[in-house]
Specification:
The protein is α+β, with helices and mostly antiparallel strands. It has three helices and seven strands. This is Histidine kinase.
Length: 131
């Protein structure tokens, strides 16, 4: 079953949309490992000015590789939210990932973004520190 999701990066208007495989059990392990390496490289280089742009670009490349089965049609980057998204992964400027689930308001008006969502609750915490 397809489980679409969005990945959001603080201080960047781009919205990454993945049309399948968006469950936290699939996304979080990849995202956590990727972000640990990304933040390590940014810290070593001392570069911060274009971090949101670099992060969106590299996330897109990483998840293109991770989610492509026979093509790359399941991945896109834009500036609008899609009502089908089952989860939204928000990467904050504090380097934490918060997982959100769309509520009925989001499904009626996806452009509400995170305002139409509630934090995801699991057996584990819904936030993952990646530093």
């Amino acid at each position: 079953m397809a489980t679409p999701c969005h990945i959001l990066v603080a201080n960047n208007p781009a919205i990454i949309y993945i049309s399948r495989g968006g469950e936290p059990k699939k996304i979080l392990p990849v995202l956590k490992k990727f972000l640990a390496k990304f933040w390590q490289e940014r810290d070593i280089s001392g570069e911060e000015s274009d971090t949101p742009e670099c992060l969106v670009a590299q996330l897109t490349a990483r998840f293109a590789y991770e989610t492509a089965e026979d093509d790359f049609s399941n991945l896109k980057v834009g500036v609008k939210y899609f009502p089908a998204a089952a989860y939204l992964y928000d990467i904050g400027s504090d380097r934490k990932v918060t997982v959100w689930e769309p509520g009925s308001a989001y499904k009626q008006d996806p452009q509400l973004g995170l305002k139409g969502c509630t934090p995801w609750q699991s057996a584990e915490s819904s936030s993952v520190v990646s530093s």
